[in-house]
Amino acid sequence: EGTRWFAAAASVLIQASSGASYAFGIYSPILKSSQGYDQSTLDVVSVFKDVGANAGVISGFLYSAACRSVGSLEDEKSVWGPWVVHAVGAIQCFAGYFFLWLAVTGTIPKPRLELMYLFMFLAAHSQTFFNTANVVTAVRNFPDYSGTVVGIMK
């Protein structure tokens, strides 16, 4: 019982801290000015952010593979399955936002536009890994409250 509640609390904290793409309006002026983008170019960057944040097929496949042999909640594998998905999401989040940061600060030469699309896609796509691991695990752990769980987390 304690493991379920710990996992639920950890999931809520991860979910609350993984929404940097929702703050695009805050950092987009800096991205625009530092890279010399016009508004239409920034809009395309934003499209890659939106596509990345909503294309969660890979995270779903990874979750299915990582949690395939999950038995009861006391089974040790049930704890590690979602954390594998979280780890992949965290690596992807770091890579995407780190390279965006390097570009904005001028630490690396101004990247080609296609690379900026990739960086933004990777950064936003990481959200799908957190969403998938958190929501699916919470629904599996609390099947009688699945609607409430999804409502709280989303």
UniProtKB/TrEMBL annotation:
Gene Ontology CC entries for this record? membrane
Q: State the membrane topology.
A: Multi-pass membrane protein
Question: Where in the cell is the protein located?
Answer: Membrane
Q: Which InterPro entries match?
A: MFS_trans_sf, Nodulin-like
Query: Which SUPFAM superfamilies does the record cross-reference, listed alphabetically?
Result: MFS general substrate transporter (SSF103473)
- Does the keyword Amino-acid biosynthesis belong to this entry? no
* Main subcellular location of this protein, as a coarse class: membrane
Keywords (alphabetical) are: Membrane, Transmembrane, Transmembrane helix
Provide the Nodulin-like domain boundaries. Answer: 4-154
Membrane-spanning residues: 83-103, 115-136
> Per the similarity annotation, which family is this?
Belongs to the major facilitator superfamily. Phosphate:H(+) symporter (TC 2.A.1.9) family.
Query: What protein name applies here?
Result: Nodulin-like domain-containing protein
Species of provenance: Genlisea aurea
Upper taxonomic lineage: Eukaryota, Viridiplantae, Streptophyta, Embryophyta, Tracheophyta
